[in-house]
Amino acid sequence: MDRMVESQAPVLEMLWEPRDSRQVLEERFGFADGSGAARWVAATVDEHWGVRVDRCERIVMSGGNALAWVTTSSGRLLVKWSVIPDRFPRLAETARLTGWLHDRGLPVSAPVPARDGRLQVEAGLVSIGVQREITGDLLDTRDPGRVRTAGAALARLQDALAVYPDADRIPGAALSPLPFEDRITGWLASSADHLPEVRSTLRERVAGAPPGRFPAQLVHFDFRSANILCKGGEIVAILDFEEARREPPLFELARAAVLLGTRYHNWGPAPAEVHEEFVAGYESERPLTPAEGEWLDILLLWQALEMVPPGADPTGWGASALDLSRRPDVRSRDGRPSRAIGARCYK
C-alpha cells in the first residue's frame, strides 16, 4: 500500500551550496528524483515512528544532510537525515541533548521518539530523526528588542548546558581548549597577513590583557540568525546543536555577536550596535566580570578578523574588523579598560 496520500513530487532546494539540487539528490543521497526520496521518507517514518505521511512538500540539502517537510494527520513534521557515518554518533548524542533541554523548558526543537524510544534512528546507511515543525521568523538583527532577547536566551542556554550530565558523551566535547592568548597568537602566526593594522592592534591587545584562561563547558557554538526562530517578542526555538562543543562561554558570546546576522548566503558582519544590544541582553542574565569584559573586545576583533576573506570582500568583513580595531578603550575608575562596546564602565 502507498504510504503517502499525495504523490506530488517535493520541491528540491540547496541550503547554501550553488549546486543543482537534483544532481546532489542522486549523487549524495541515492535518489533518482524527488518522488523517490519522498517515498523513502514516508516509508521510513511509517516503519520507525508509526506515522503516516500524507505529503512530502520540500527537501532541502546541505553537505551530507537533508531536511524534509512533511504533513501528517498529527501535524507537520521535519524529517532530517544524514549520510555521513562519522557523524552518526554525534547526531545520536545531540538528539539526546536536545530532548534533555526541551524537558527543562528551553526553547528547542525536540526530537520525536521512534516506536522503540530512540530519538535518532540508524536505518541502513543513514541516521534519521523527526521533529515537530515550529513556526516563526528567523532572527532579524535590525530589531533591537529581538537582539536583546536573543542575548538573554543564549545566557540561559549556557546555564542549562553547564549542568548537562552527559556532555562528555558528545564526540569531541571532552577536549579542553587552550587559553585565549595562545589560540590568538597561534592563529596570527599561521594565518594570512591581510589587514596588518588590525592584526597589529589585536596582537597589542592580547599582550596587554589579563590571563585568558576561562572555564570551558558545553556550548551550542552555532548561535546565529539561521538557527534562531522568533515569534512576537520571544525566541521560540534554538535550532541545530550539531556544532556543540566544549568552549568558554565568553568565546561563544563573542562568536555569536559577530555572526549573529548570518543565514545561508552572503554572510556579512553584524554592526557594532548589534553587538551592544546582544551583549546587553546576555548580561541581563549573566553579567560579565571585568576580565571577561576586556577579553570580549579582543575576541570580537579576532572573530571579525578571522572572517575576512583573502581576496574580494563583498560583504564587508574587513571594514567591520577595522572599525572594531579603532573603537577607543574606555577606562573605568580603577584604570582597567572596560568593554569598548559597552555603555557602562566596570567598577
From TrEMBL:
* GO MF assignments: amino acid kinase activity
Q: Does the keyword Transferase apply?
A: yes
**Which InterPro entries does the record cross-reference, listed alphabetically?**
Aminoglycoside_PTrfase, Kinase-like_dom_sf, Pseudomonas-type_ThrB
Q: Where are the transmembrane segments?
A: none
User: Residues in domain Aminoglycoside phosphotransferase?
Assistant: 69-287
- Report the sequence similarity comment from the record: Belongs to the pseudomonas-type ThrB family.
Name this polypeptide is given: Aminoglycoside phosphotransferase
Ranked from the top, the taxonomy reads:
Bacteria, Bacillati, Actinomycetota, Actinomycetes, Micromonosporales
